[in-house]
Design brief:
about 500 residues; Alpha-D-Glucose-1,6-Bisphosphate, Chain A, domain 3; about 35% helix; single chain; five-stranded antiparallel beta sheet; 21 strands; alpha/beta; eight-stranded mixed beta sheet
C-alpha cells in the first residue's frame, strides 16, 4: 500500500479526504478500500491498547447525513469485523452521541468511530475516533494511518451476529430529556418546556432530532424550525454556525416565527450557536460569554479557556463582569479541550473550554465538545430564568457589542511556507516591540493590544493577532477596533508592520 496516500488523509486529530468525484482538481482519495483498512487497523489497535483479542471488542459506528456516509460506514464495518470485532451500527448519529456509546451502560462499547467531515462540502468526508479517554490525538491518527497502510486483508466469512443495529440517537436524546427534567424540576415535570417556543436550524445535518426528540418531547413549540431533514447535498446553506448565511437563516427563522430562542448546529452536532428572540445572534465571542455567564454562579473565580482569536471585549466581560479568569489559548478544538483537562488536573478549576467556532466542552460532561449538550445547558438556564421572569439577554448585557472586525488571509508565496511563516512572526514581533506596543502573552502567533490614544488622539481601542496556518501556506490576521475608524487605523498600522514581508500576498489589506 502507498503509505503517503494514507498519511495525507490526516487532518490534525481527524481523518479527512475527498470521498466523491465531480469536483475539478479534487480526485477521490478517501476510498472504501482505504476506509476498510483503517477500520481493520483501528480494531486491532484498540485490542492491543486494551490487551485483549479483537473478537472480544464491540465498536460503534455512526455517520452524519453526507452522501458518501453509508458507503464509507459500510466499508468501515467491513474492516472492523474482518479484524474479528463486533460492530454496533448506529446509522445516522451525531459525533457526541458516538462517544457516549462508550459511556452508556446500555451500549458499553469499547470504542467508536463517526463518519463525518463537519461542515465541509458535500463531496468530502472523514473519520473521528473515540476511546473511553476521549477523541484520538494527532499522534494516534498518524500511527493509525501508518498501520492501515500496511494492512492486507483476505476476506473471510463471518457469523451474522457480528453486526447489530442500534438507534443510538434516540437513547442519547432520552438521556438529555431526563437531565432537563431533573434540573428544571418544573411543576409539570415531564413537560418542563411547555409554553416555550424554540426554533432549530439543523442545516440538513444530523441535528434535526433535537427538535423532534428533545424539544417537542418536553412540551416546546418548534414551529418554524428549518432544514431538519438529513440531506447530504446541503441545499440550503453550509451547516456551520460560523457561516454568515447560516446565521442569517436562523436569525430570520426566529424573528419571523416569533420564537423565544433559536439554536443552530453544524452537520455532526458537535458545534452550536444561538439567537435571541429579537434576532440578535449569539455566536463567536457572545456564545462563549453566554455559556460562561450560565456557569459562573456555580464556578466562582474559575478559568475559561478559549481559542486565540477571541476579543479583548470578551476578556473584559469574563474578568470584570463575571469575576472569572480568561486563558486565551490556541485555535483547534483539541487544543482548548486538552488545556481545560490539564488545568483541572493541576487543581485549577476550569468548567468550560470553547472556541469561537462553537466547539465547546464542559468539564462535567467528559470534556466532550457536544453542541447538543451545550444547548441543553442553555435550555435549563432559560427554563429557570422564565420562572423568575428574567430575559436571557441580561446574562451578557455587560459584553460590549460596539466593535468593527476584519479577518485577512495572506497567501505565502514560498515553497517552505512553514519556515517563512515563522520568520514573519519573529520579525513582526520585533517591529511591534520597536514601537513599544503592548504585546500580551500569546500561545499562538503575535497579538498586539492597542489602548485608548495609542494610534491617534481620537483612537479608542483595539487589537490584532497574526498567526500562521498549521496545514496551509497561509497567514491569518485578525483585527478589531471599537469603531470603524479604529479598525482603519489598525489596518494601516498592520500594513506598516508587515511592509518587510514581500512574499505575503497582502492584497486583502487594501
Amino acid at each position: 500500500m502507498d503509505t503517503a496516500a494514507y498519511l495525507k488523509l490526516q487532518n490534525g486529530s481527524d481523518v479527512r479526504g475527498v470521498a466523491l468525484p465531480g469536483v475539478a482538481d479534487e480526485p477521490v482519495d478517501l476510498t472504501p478500500e482505504i476506509v476498510k483498512n483503517i477500520g481493520y487497523a483501528f480494531a486491532n489497535s484498540i485490542a492491543e491498547k486494551k490487551r485483549t483479542e479483537p473478537s472480544l471488542l464491540k465498536i460503534a459506528v455512526g455517520r452524519d447525513s453526507r452522501l458518501s456516509g453509508e458507503m464509507l460506514a459500510k466499508a468501515l464495518v467491513h474492516g472492523i469485523t474482518q479484524a474479528g470485532a463486533s460492530v454496533l451500527d448506529c446509522a445516522l448519529s451525531s459525533t457526541p452521541a458516538m462517544f457516549m456509546s462508550i459511556v452508556y451502560p446500555e451500549t458499553a462499547c469499547d470504542a467508536s468511530v463517526m463518519v463525518t467531515a463537519s461542515h465541509l462540502p458535500f463531496h468530502r468526508n472523514g473519520l473521528k475516533f473515540f476511546t473511553a479517554e476521549g477523541g484520538f490525538e494527532k499522534e494516534d491518527i498518524y500511527n493509525l494511518l501508518l498501520r492501515a497502510s500496511q494492512v492486507d486483508i483476505t476476506d473471510r466469512s463471518l457469523p451474522d451476529d457480528k453486526v447489530s443495529s442500534f438507534d443510538l440517537l434516540s437513547l442519547y436524546a432520552a438521556k438529555l430529556c431526563t437531565l432537563i427534567k431533573e434540573k428544571v424540576k418544573a411543576a409539570s415535570y415531564d413537560k418542563p418546556l411547555q409554553g416555550s417556543h424554540f426554533v432549530i436550524d439543523a442545516g440538513n445535518g444530523s441535528g434535526g432530532f433535537f427538535a423532534t426528540k428533545i424539544l417537542e418531547e418536553l412540551g416546546a413549540d418548534t414551529s418554524g424550525s428549518c432544514f431538519l431533514e438529513p440531506d447530504g447535498h446541503f441545499p440550503n446553506h453550509v451547516p456551520n454556525p460560523e457561516n454568515a448565511e447560516a446565521m442569517k437563516s436562523i436569525c430570520r427563522a426566529v424573528t419571523e416565527n416569533h420564537a423565544d430562542f433559536g439554536f443552530i448546529f453544524d452537520t455532526d452536532v458537535d458545534r452550536m450557536s444561538a439567537v435571541f428572540a429579537d434576532g440578535t445572534p449569539i455566536n463567536r465571542d457572545s456564545i462563549i460569554a453566554f455559556m460562561a455567564a450560565i456557569l459562573a454562579p456555580d464556578f466562582p473565580g474559575s478559568t475559561i479557556v478559549t481559542d486565540s482569536v477571541t476579543s479583548d471585549r470578551l476578556t473584559d466581560f469574563l474578568e470584570k463582569d463575571l469575576h472569572l479568569k480568561h486563558l486565551r489559548f490556541k485555535r483547534g478544538y483539541k487544543n482548548v479541550i486538552n488545556k481545560c483537562r490539564s488545568l483541572n488536573a493541576s487543581g485549577i478549576p476550569c468548567p468550560l473550554a470553547m472556541e469561537t467556532s462553537g466547539h465547546g466542552c464542559l468539564r462535567d460532561n467528559y470534556y466532550l465538545d457536544d453542541g447538543a449538550f451545550l444547548a441543553v445547558t442553555i435550555l435549563i438556564a432559560l427554563a429557570k430564568q422564565k420562572a423568575s421572569h428574567q430575559k436571557p439577554e441580561h446574562l451578557i448585557a455587560g459584553l460590549s457589542q460596539t466593535y468593527a472586525a476584519k479577518e485577512v488571509r495572506f497567501r505565502i508565496e514560498e515553497e517552505d511556507f512553514h519556515a517563512y511563516g515563522d520568520r514573519v512572526l519573529a520579525d513582526f514581533k520585533l517591529q511591534a516591540r520597536s514601537k513599544n506596543f503592548d504585546l500580551p502573552t500569546s500561545y499562538e502567533g503575535v497579538r498586539i493590544r492597542f489602548p485608548k490614544g495609542s494610534l491617534s488622539a481620537h483612537f479608542k481601542r483595539g487589537w490584532m493577532l497574526l498567526r500562521a496556518s498549521l496545514h496551509d501556506p497561509v497567514m491569518v490576521l485578525n483585527m478589531e477596533g471599537e469603531t470603524e475608524d479604529d479598525l482603519l487605523q489598525i489596518t494601516k498600522m498592520a500594513k506598516g508592520l508587515l511592509s518587510f514581508a514581500t512574499r505575503l500576498d497582502q492584497s486583502g489589506l487594501s
